[in-house]
Design a protein that fits this description.
The complex is a heterodimer of chains A (about 425) and B (about 260).
Chain A (H helix, E strand, L loop, with lengths): L8 H7 L26 H8 L14 H14 L3 E5 L2 H12 L5 E5 L4 H10 L6 E5 L4 H7 L4 E7 L11 H10 L4 E4 L4 H4 L2 H4 L3 E5 L13 E5 L5 H4 L3 H4 L10 H5 L3 H14 L5 H12 L1 H21 L3 E5 L9 H7 L7 E6 L2 H11 L4 E2 L9 E3 L11 H6 L6 E5 L5 H15 L3
Parallel strand pairs in A: 2-3, 2-4, 4-5, 5-6, 10-11
Antiparallel strand pairs in A: 1-7, 6-7, 8-9, 9-12, 11-12
Chain B lengths: L1 E4 L2 E6 L11 E5 L10 H8 L4 E5 L15 H15 L4 E6 L1 H12 L4 E7 L9 H8 L4 H10 L2 H5 L9 H10 L5 H11 L3 H7 L4 E6 L7 H10 L4 E5 L6 H4 L1 H9 L3
Parallel strand pairs in B: 3-4, 3-5, 5-6, 6-7, 7-8
Antiparallel strand pairs in B: 1-2, 2-4
Helix pairs in contact in B: 1-12, 2-3, 3-9, 4-5, 4-8, 5-7, 9-10
Classes of the chains: A alpha/beta (about 425), B alpha/beta (about 260).
Chain lengths: ~425, ~260
């Protein structure tokens, strides 16, 4: 037999989960813009509802277009299955609600997306779920924060906004010692730069809105099941290991083995909470995933050029990017992100908040908005926008200096981006 | 559900329903390194359509106590002991790959106790490559990759699972990774060493279905032809665009074919 070989990343980006449509011959993924799907007969309908047979029933629970994106992301991440959701936030919420009940506890990196921080800090406590935040650079801090009711460790491959690189292998090992899964938000990295499941993560979530979609045109999320976590050995997850009255006493771990989590997330989570992805959204996002390897190479190459430019710029006090030797995670990044540390980074502008404001107003190609991971370059100065109500001390406590400017580098010609930044930096220094 | 066979605990999935003494019973027997979850897209249907389902974990696999049984003859005898333990006079046997050899041998040894036989992804002989045997013996994870890649057909490598959002090769790999050290080698060696297939085929008396995949690289349809010819009255069905993992690759086609015989 020939040397065994899985289909490679670039091929899966284009083909994963899809064969040409058998009815029409359509090569592109068709948009199945249909709420519901006809049954062959009464027996077929009953079998679908009782999970005796598989198939599409209603687009809140599954849809053929969305299923292509789901399979493709599972293949690219090295998982066993995916549920796509209305947004990245919906994906995180779905993971939490599938894993735990009131009275549970989460240990999370303190350096995470603000929306996730809000969910953990303000919203989940209303439902009896508490979170302890710890230093993402300290795996032992995760261990020390674990309580008897802890049901999930959480962090981001690349922290926000500090770009802390998560030591996924060590943090997941801490979780596994306690029978607790590690959930990783890998939005900033995408599977092209890092596959957290290969490093030990149990579930991976994405805001597919960002680099995976890549074009800033659609909101979507995904939760991907790595399929390695042993829910039964852990004994802490009755939603996955005890009979569920919602499906005639189905025990998901017993019935589905490695796919227990993702089956429950769909069968209960999408059915009952309903934060599904629309098929048209899946179609838009699939167009982005097709070119993910090409775009990520270019995002990283552009970022390296711009980081080098800013390092040498007089109006810049510091640049924080994990590929720089002075970054605290320089060595770790080489292991976790061997193809590059992404295209989001921050720098400190000389002159603090006022200079930051002048800089933002002077850029022309960089778009000033609250998003990252677009094909177009983006900029935000938290001190004058998202965090303007915080004083210097409060910003410092949040790890955000008044001088911090965050960039998301797009796919433009990098020399034009450098010209734009250079001009805006000069403008920022004129009072 | 659990049974005691030869003093050891055996797990079987019943498809979500407890057995009913008035119904015919069907035993599903998985392949090398796998467990009962290989049959999840068939068993639940049968359980809700008038059959007692016993999708077993062979000894040493899944939730059943070890050790794994190291010969097809030993597996056949064990299957008959399982029938005794379950209080079944007769059962239909549905086996995949290694499980098909065990089912074949059991049907030959005690033809009066097997009312139907379905052999999926089967061949006589069922030779296993030296490289795969060596990797499995060393508990090298490369063995899991080799099987996952060879066992899934070309279409399954790309995906489009019948269950929305599931990734076939990912799950196949994880299932093998769960096997206990040495078990995969024991299973593969049992396949490779099995000599009595053609003699067993001649002794089968019950209705028999051979279900094969035209893209199966592990047990190609031509390798099953002598077996099909040796079993009196056996029906052969070759599924188009299907590899060795037919119960996952084409779950509905497999289910519908099985409904015709069990």
């Amino acid at each position: 037999m020939a040397e065994p070989q899985y289909l490679r990343f670039g091929t899966l980006s284009l083909h994963g989960g899809q064969h040409p449509d058998p009815t029409t011959g359509a090569r592109a993924v068709p948009i199945y813009q249909s709420t519901s799907f006809v049954f062959d007969d009464v027996d077929h309908a009953a079998a679908l509802f009782n999970l005796e047979r598989a198939g599409h029933i209603y687009s809140r629970i599954s849809n053929p277009t969305t299923a292509v994106l789901e399979e493709r992301l599972a293949g690219l991440e090295g998982g066993v299955g995916t549920v796509c959701t209305a947004s990245g936030q919906a994906a995180l919420t779905l993971a939490v609600l599938t894993l735990m009940d009131a009275g549970s506890h989460i240990v999370s990196s303190a350096s995470i997306y603000g929306g996730s921080h809000n969910l953990f800090t303000h919203t989940l406590p209303r439902f009896g779920i508490e979170t302890t935040f710890v230093d993402p650079r300290d795996p032992e801090a995760f261990r020390q924060a674990i309580r008897p009711n802890t049901r999930m460790l959480f962090g981001e491959t690349l922290g926000n906004p500090g770009l802390e690189v998560m030591d996924i292998a060590r943090v997941s090992a801490v979780g596994h010692e306690h029978g607790i899964p590690l959930v990783v938000d890998s939005t900033f990295a995408t599977p092209y730069l890092c596959r957290p499941i290969d490093l030990g993560a149990d579930l991976v979530m994405h805001s597919v809105t960002k680099f995976l979609g890549g074009h800033g045109v659609a909101i979507g999320g995904a939760i991907i099941d790595g399929g390695r976590f042993d829910w039964e050995a852990s004994g802490l997850f009755p939603t996955l290991t005890e009979p569920y009255a919602g499906y005639h006493g189905l025990d998901f771990a017993e019935e589905f083995g490695p796919q227990a989590f993702i089956m429950r997330a769909r069968a209960e989570g999408l059915r009952d909470f309903g934060a599904c992805m629309a098929p048209a959204t899946a179609f838009y996002l699939l167009q982005g995933v097709e070119t993910l390897p090409l775009r990520m190479e270019k995002h990283v190459a552009n970022t390296r050029k711009i980081v080098a430019f800013l390092k040498a710029a007089e109006a810049v006090d510091w640049v924080a990017y994990p590929e720089l030797p002075e970054h605290p995670d320089y060595e770790l990044a080489k292991k976790v992100l061997p193809r590059g540390a992404g295209s989001i980074f921050s720098f400190g502008i000389r002159g603090g908040r006022a200079a930051g404001r002048r800089f933002i107003e002077a850029v022309r190609l960089f778009s000033h908005l609250a998003n990252v991971g677009d094909a177009k370059s983006l900029v935000i100065h938290p001190g004058s926008t998202t965090h303007q109500q915080m004083d210097a001390a409060a910003l410092e406590a949040a790890g955000i200096g008044e001088e911090l400017v965050r960039l998301s580098i797009g796919l433009e010609d990098p020399d034009d981006l450098i010209d734009d930044l250079g001009r805006a930096l000069r403008a920022s220094q004129k009072s | 559900m659990e049974l005691q066979v030869d003093g050891k605990t055996v797990f079987y999935a019943s498809g979500g329903r407890a057995p009913d003494a008035g119904q015919p019973s069907v035993i599903f027997i998985h392949g090398a390194g796998a467990d009962h979850t290989a049959w999840v897209l068939q068993t639940r249907y049968f359980a809700y359509h008038g059959r007692n389902v016993l999708a077993i974990d062979l000894p040493g696999h899944g939730r059943s106590e070890g050790p794994a049984i190291d010969s097809v003859g030993g597996l056949a005898d064990w299957l008959m002991a399982l029938l005794d333990a379950a209080g079944l006079e007769k059962a239909a046997l549905v086996g995949h790959s290694l499980g098909s050899l065990a089912a074949l041998e059991a049907a030959a040894r005690q033809p009066g106790r097997v009312w139907a036989l379905a052999l999926l992804g089967s061949a006589i002989p069922m030779a296993v490559s030296d490289g795969l045997l060596a990797a499995a013996k060393a508990n090298d994870p490369a063995a899991f990759d080799m099987i996952t890649i060879w066992a899934h057909g070309a279409e399954a490598q790309i995906g489009r699972h019948t269950v929305p959002g599931l990734w076939m090769t990912g799950n196949g790999l994880r299932l093998l990774e769960r096997s206990r050290p040495g078990v995969l080698h024991t299973d593969l060696k049992a396949c490779n060493d099995y000599q009595g297939g053609m003699q067993a085929a001649a002794r089968v008396t019950c209705p028999t279905l051979l279900l094969l995949g035209d893209g199966d690289r592990m047990t190609p349809p031509q390798a099953a032809r002598p077996l099909a010819q040796a079993i009196s009255g056996a029906e052969t069905v070759v599924l188009p665009r299907c590899g060795h993992m037919m119960s996952v690759e084409q779950p509905d086609a497999v289910l519908d074919r099985l409904r015709e015989i069990v």
